[in-house]
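name: query_chain
kind: protein
chains: 1
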Amino acid sequence: MRIIDQVASAMQDILTTTAYRLGRETGFVQRESKLNGAVFTETLVFTYLANPQATLDELIQTAATLGVVISTSGFDQRFTPEAADVLQQVLAAALSRLLRSQPWDLPILTQFTSVLVEDGTLIALPPALAEMWQGCGTATGQETAALKLLLRIDLLTGLLETLTLHAGRVHDSAAAAPTTTLPAGSLYLADLGFFRLERLRSIAQQAAFFLTRFKLHTIVWTEDGQRWDDVAALLEAQGSNVVDLAVEVGARRVVSARLVAVRAPQEVVDQRRRRLREAARRDGHTASAAQLAAAAWSIFLTNVPVERLPVAALLVVARARWQIELVFKTWKSHGQIDQSRSGKCWRVMCDVYAKLLAMVVSHWISLIEVWGYPDRSMVKAAKVMQKHAMTLAERVHGWDRAGVCETLTTIARVLATGCRMNRRKTAPNTYQLLLEVGEHLLA
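structure:
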């Protein structure tokens, strides 16, 4: 089935059939009503896709477009725990549809079966939701509430492999998706919050690869059998500004890897040390000598062979992890998943779930055309989708499959022509650097 047909099918199955069924199963609809689970879900998702700052007036206008006339107060009263339950379960159903585009045409990345990046972000919630989504610490004596989103995405195909919701106080490594199902030959990128030796060993056992920043105080064993508790001392002992060593890590030599390090420019070192001292001062202690010494280096750990990722290529591929930050940035700045016009707890939860659903739908649409281009601009793409949101709403709700495909085709045509980043000479985009190192690697 073509990707455009898959997206059309997913939108209608999830936002219409599944949402209608869940409206009844959750008790959101207790008697026959025109504002059923499907209309409620479609109203929120497509309105927020068009305008994430939409008012109640705009929401009821969309509902009227879908055939349901209701007052603003009547619609406002439908933001209940049951409504939030409907939207949460519809979101889960949407995330179970594993849609993907054609892979990026970047040789440095396509040598892997997939390039999986994992990271998280927080959404602050009203304190009244602390029992459900407990945050960290307290605010003016009250428990804080926060929702943590953990996302794992394949940079090659745009596949949303996992998107899970957790209480804000849960540590990234505890909430992270398992690494026991990674495809053989895939590359896994994650920040230090996900650094656990057991996870790295699990990845290697799947015949997959990892690339991560090195966590300070991790024990390192060199090939001569010497144990190093101080990584900065090990690096200084090499007498070079670029280090690439075969090592084993962990007190019990848990995993074999390459320790790759490059000495940072002095201005970068000074900035890192300043931030370390400021952070330590906020926490009531002083930065350690080991931290300050390690700040002189950019240090990575990987099990990718050097012939596949030489040091120069490794440094560029490590930057690709920031692509997931761009996803979160788009979801927050453009989709406003962390904002609500209301302070009422269940309205806030409905807005969070609905806006996340809107971002998933937006992502599905991007897979049709724009995701396959490494120079894509997701912000420009999101603005294009805004203009067609209401047309999609009518056609999805009306079970007009041909009409949905027609609208998606129009969107895809616009995305293909006007949603690219400009090439930069002084500060190249990540995709430009990936292309360049790929060309050198294949030369």
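note: The chain is about 45% helix and 15% strand.
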